[in-house]
């Protein structure tokens, strides 16, 4: 059973087929969501914030079942685990995380352009077998 905030979709077990980025302010988040909607990506976007966002990231696997805890335990030692920790820390410090759930090779360029235009940082694309750092 997932114990997540109902305003967000269920948290992912893996970050595959996602682009995640950190955004510093709410105004930039609104602009990003608007621009992604215009580009046709909007249905696949979640803007995370605050304690609910930290719970959704669930870096320790505390809000999922046994499988989630097991996978998060393994991820703790991987790049993906370090990224989950960073996203959770950014959310805890009042920033926002944009989660675009689409294969990066399909909407990646459009998404990346929008994110960069609005000064998003720590942008990472999670493909099936690779993780690409697109901006620090």
Could you characterize the architecture of this molecule?
- This protein has 136 residues and is of the alpha+beta class.
- The protein is built from five helices and five strands; from the N terminus they run βαβαααβαββ.
- It has a five-stranded antiparallel sheet, with helices on both faces.
- Helix 2 (50-57) packs antiparallel against helix 4 (79-92).
- The termini are far apart.
Quote the beta fraction: 15-25%
Number of helices: 5
Secondary-structure-derived class: alpha+beta
Order of strands in the sheet with most strands: 2-3-1-4-5
Helix content: 40-55%
Biggest β-sheet strands, sense, barrel? 5 strands, antiparallel
Tell me, rounded to a whole number, the average pLDDT: 81
Question: Mind telling me the C-alpha Rg?
Answer: 14 Å
Instruction: Provide the succession of SSEs.
Output: EHEHHHEHEE
Question: What's the number of extended β-strand segments?
Answer: 5
* Quaternary organisation: single chain
Shape: globular
User: Unreliable stretches, pLDDT < 50, 5 or more residues?
Assistant: 1-6
- End-to-end distance, in Å? 34 Å
């Amino acid at each position: 059973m997932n114990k997540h905030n109902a305003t967000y979709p269920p948290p992912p077990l893996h970050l595959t087929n996602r682009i995640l980025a950190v955004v510093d302010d709410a105004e930039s988040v609104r602009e990003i969501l608007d621009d992604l909607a215009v580009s046709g990506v909007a249905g696949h976007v979640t803007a995370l914030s605050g304690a609910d966002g930290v719970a959704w990231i669930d870096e320790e696997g505390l809000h999922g079942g046994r499988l989630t805890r097991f996978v998060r335990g393994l991820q703790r030692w991987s790049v993906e685990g370090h990224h989950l920790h960073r996203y959770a820390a950014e959310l805890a410090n009042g920033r926002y995380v944009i989660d675009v759930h689409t294969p990066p090779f399909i909407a990646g360029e459009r998404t990346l352009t929008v994110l960069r235009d609005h000064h998003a940082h720590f942008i990472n694309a999670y493909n099936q077998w690779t993780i690409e750092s697109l901006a620090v």
